[in-house]
Amino acid sequence: MSDPSSSGPSSSVAEAIAKAARTAFEQSQLVDVSERDLALRAIREVLEEKKDEVLKANKADMEAAEGLLSQGKLSKSLVSRLDLSRPGKFDAMLQGISDVASLPVPTGQVTFAKEIGPGLDLHRVTCPIGVLLVIFEARPEVVVNIAALAIKSGNAAILKGGKESLRTATILSQLIAEALSKTSIPPTFIQSVSTRSEISSLLAQDRYIDLVMPRGGNELVRSIQNNTRIPVMGHADGICAVYVDQSAVEEKALRVVVESKTDYMAACNAAETLLIHSSLLPTLWPKLASELMKNNVCLRCDPSTLSAIQDIPESSKFVTASTEEDYHTEFLGPTLAVKTVDNVNEAVKHINSHSSHHTDSIITEDEKSMSIWCKGLDSANCYVNASTRFADGTRYGLGTEVGISTGKTHARGPVGLDGLVIYKYMMRSRNDKGSTIADYEKGETRYTHKDLVKSEPPF
Amino acid sequence: MSDPSSSGPSSSVAEAIAKAARTAFEQSQLVDVSERDLALRAIREVLEEKKDEVLKANKADMEAAEGLLSQGKLSKSLVSRLDLSRPGKFDAMLQGISDVASLPVPTGQVTFAKEIGPGLDLHRVTCPIGVLLVIFEARPEVVVNIAALAIKSGNAAILKGGKESLRTATILSQLIAEALSKTSIPPTFIQSVSTRSEISSLLAQDRYIDLVMPRGGNELVRSIQNNTRIPVMGHADGICAVYVDQSAVEEKALRVVVESKTDYMAACNAAETLLIHSSLLPTLWPKLASELMKNNVCLRCDPSTLSAIQDIPESSKFVTASTEEDYHTEFLGPTLAVKTVDNVNEAVKHINSHSSHHTDSIITEDEKSMSIWCKGLDSANCYVNASTRFADGTRYGLGTEVGISTGKTHARGPVGLDGLVIYKYMMRSRNDKGSTIADYEKGETRYTHKDLVKSEPPF
Fold first, then answer.
1. CB distance A376–B428 less than 8 Å?
2. Which among A385, A397, A458 has the least Cβ separation from residue B429?
3. What chain B residue is nearest to A251 in terms of C-alpha separation?
4. Can you tell me the distance from the alpha carbon of B393 to that of B348, in angstroms, rounded to the nearest whole number?
5. Using an 8 Å Cβ cutoff, are A401 and A413 in contact?
6. Residue B455, CA atoms < 13 Å, CB-side half-sphere
7. Residue A295 CB burial class (10 angstroms; 0-12, 13-18, ≥19)
8. Nearest Cα to A179, choosing from A31, A20, A35?
9. Torsion of Cα atoms, A53 then A56 then A58 then A64, to 10°
10. B115: which chain A residues are within 8 Å (Cβ-Cβ)?
């Protein structure tokens, strides 16, 4: 691969945007943390005041989208997500700002404190990451939501929403900048870009941008990972599984499997694979299959699960033989891949090699199976007798959610404000002569490495 | 850039290595944590027993290196770092294994525990990242050191050392595998590769490898970042600065500046830039400059600092005018870039835009300057009146160090065992019917989100 530093027509614009974000971030570090909540309040007030302008822009986006919908170029669900004029939607967006403001501040927390030696203290203190580049779908309220999270955590952000929401996103960004200009947070703390070419130029700005967060499918995440040196916290596929173990209680299995599959099929935490313990093929499995077919779920079955249900009348309509590819597929719709396994270890092995390490649930009464499941699975969320649909920042009580990370570093699973911080070490010498390592390594001073109470940060 | 999936001659070998590492990692997750220490002990025993074989291979590496040294193709310091037969070196390597074994286990720690609702508990538990690819310099003992850290933290690892240490690294890897084959940890848990082409093929194995850790210069880190989708925890440049503020105490300034620059000039935590408050130009600065020149440090000065010391006799030998590039340079030798600033804010601004965000120290008695320094600097280690040379995992009391990360995500600054873990969420329902979100969102059950005592993990 070649170096991603590009020199296309938009690269100088991208550099200017990224540099402005970095400067805004650096300036904001000396602003008192309480100003972040004042900024959030100012944004809420401006948006309330200019509601009509926002809805007017949104109407234009909606009209364009409906035109494309009638030509079959957009999906109905996309158009519906665009609409800010639906009852309660705008107010919910405003309330979201206040909700974020009321969360605990994630920065300035001491996570490690040691006396290195006499008069020499070391604190590890949480701080913002820096400049975020967030790429998301055509949902205009996400502009406001991400802006609020970035401000609360002290990170500057560059936002890019789906192109169908461009008019709404643009006015929302302008109003956010207008609100910030009345506060101590620089107005360029939150910026928006509108075109894909700007994104590709921004991906070369690793000098100024610290983290890229693509919210979207696997393809978007991989394409970004292929084109930047900047760390990527991506939300890729959600290929989640439920495994019904030998000791499963029927009612638990029925309730959890049916909800995990059918509650919201386009969600990343919906089940796409069902694993059945071989002992259940003649007993629980046909009941479960009937229940799924009642919910119009098509079953792609391996030979054993297929033959166990072929006498059920509905099966001719809903059941087909599976292919290997089905077990790697995020259907996002009414299709479920089904497979027989002989024990929990085999289930874990299948999931580790086929899933997207997102969320998987076991139905079992056996403590040993639970333990093998939770220890052996390499997934962000390992559940016992609970629906995969619980995998969500709000349901976890994290307050709000930046996204669900399928990565293995920094933050994993539902990411709250905590996932938007890193830390720095602060060391202060109170010795008359300052502190050198020679005092310790060539002199008389001894390293104590004594734990200190983790209280307030030193500065 | 093109997709990094390669199909060169070594790509199938690389895939086999990466897959074997992944399988070893997955198998090891069900092995009791205490077995990790037994494996470390077994490695120590085998290495003790086979010391002669190791030293024989090392002798061959040394002879080849000395040949290259005499042709001027290798540096003396590289050859000296290769040598495992120096007094105490081999024993120190063995002791390192025992030291790692005695550290607290970083996995299985509960970092968040909540009751989601009645009978439904959620725990966030630290766990290994998975498979690490570690690339390091030609220091054979690092093979053993990294293997010990990987085993202790439960991560499988693929190692690649500098080519000059190949014979020693190969035998060490074989002995580690031999030791592991007598334990419950799979022998492919630690593997070595020997060529650069294997590395580039391994960088395409993002399906199996979770984190790349290049220990080396900026160029190595950037080249790896350009060629992989796998997250990179790199140790890039160390462009560290000391700033002498208006209120600095002379003795502190002299001691800290001189040590930061001269103690070990090739270290990443050595100072490369010195910032002087303008009020000190006629007073403290000439004394400091004399002291640095006594230590044979060449000073690259801006006009103000240059004119303030041009009457010192030694200056004709040691002082030259600086260029902008000097302030971006990691000299790794007896050269220091010097610049005047008018206040701490200007110093912070200079460092944020010129440094590598590694370690910077202020010399001051002023609390406000300290606060601006520690809050405003975007560096991993922000010091007050202390030498930059303290930036080190052992000096921090982290027990041992994987490296020093100059990144902004996952882990920053000196990285100990804690930097080799991530977490997973474990959720368990104890309800008679299992748990669904419908119970909460369409039924009578209420989310409680009550904090639980963070004790043992549930499994």
1. no
2. A385
3. B433
4. 25
5. no
6. 4
7. middle
8. A35
9. -150
10. none
Which tens digits make up the pLDDT trace of A78-109? 888 899 999 999 999 999 999 999 999 999 99
Q: Strand, coil or helix: what is A362? A: strand
Q: Is residue B446 helix, strand or coil?
A: coil
Beta partners for A287?
none
Domains of chain A are 11-225 (3.40.605.10), 240-396 (3.40.309.10)
A2: pLDDT strictly greater than 60: no
- Asked if pLDDT for residue B237 goes beyond 90, the answer is no
Which residue is it, tokens 């997207």? A356
Distance, CA of A77 to CA of A326 (rounded, Å): 25
pLDDT at B1: 36
For residues B304 and B278, is the Cβ–Cβ distance under 8 A? Answer: yes
**CB distance B238 to B358 below 8 Å:** yes
Q: What is the ipTM of this complex?
A: 0.93
Closest C-alpha to B409, from A381, A110, A415, A188: A415
Q: Has residue A311 got a pLDDT over 80? A: yes
| Encoded tokens for A60 | 């234009």
Residue with tokens 């599959």: A261
pLDDT at B2: 38
pTM passes above 0.90 = yes
Q: What residues does A125 pair with on adjacent strands?
A: A110, A424
Q: Which of B122, B412, B438 sits opposite A424 (nearest CB)?
A: B412
Indicate whether A8 pLDDT > 70: no
Q: How many CB pairs under 8 A join A and B?
A: 270
The tokens describing B328, both together, are 């971006």
B385 with A29: Cβ contact below 8 A: no
The crossing angle, in degrees rounded to 10, of helices A34-49 and A166-180 is 130
How many other C-beta atoms can be found within 10 angstroms of the C-beta atom of residue A444?
Answer: 6
Radius of gyration over alpha carbons of chain B, in Å? Answer: 26
For tokens 């030259």, name the residue.
B320
Residues of B whose CB is below 8 A from A26: 348-349, 352, 376, 378
> Hey, what are A163's tokens?
């192109």
User: Which residues, including other chains, have CB under 8 Å from residue B149's CB and lie 6 or more apart?
Assistant: B100, B400, B402, B417, B420
Nearest to B212 by CA among A73, A408, A394, A144: A408
In one letter, which amino acid is B183?
Answer: T
What residues in A contact B408, CB-CB < 8 Å?
Answer: 129-130, 210-211, 231, 422
Could you tell me how far CA B408 lies from the centroid of its own chain?
A: 13
Q: Which residues of B touch A2 (CB under 8 A)?
A: 1, 226
d(CA A100, CA A90): 16
Distance, CA of A137 to CA of A72 (rounded, Å): 19
Q: Measured between alpha carbons, how far is A309 from A286 in angstroms, rounded to an integer?
A: 6
Residues in chain A: 459
Whether residue B434 and residue A407 make contact (CB cut-off 8 A), yes or no, is no
The mean-pLDDT minimum among A174-188, A278-292, B51-65, B188-202 falls in: B188-202
What average pLDDT does range B147-176 have in this prediction? 96
Question: Measured between CA atoms, how close is B54 to chain A, in angstroms?
Answer: 31
Q: How is B267-323 classified by DSSP, letter by letter?
A: STTSEEEEEEEGGGTTTHHHHHHHHHHHTT-EEEE-HHHHHHHTTSTTHHHHEEE--
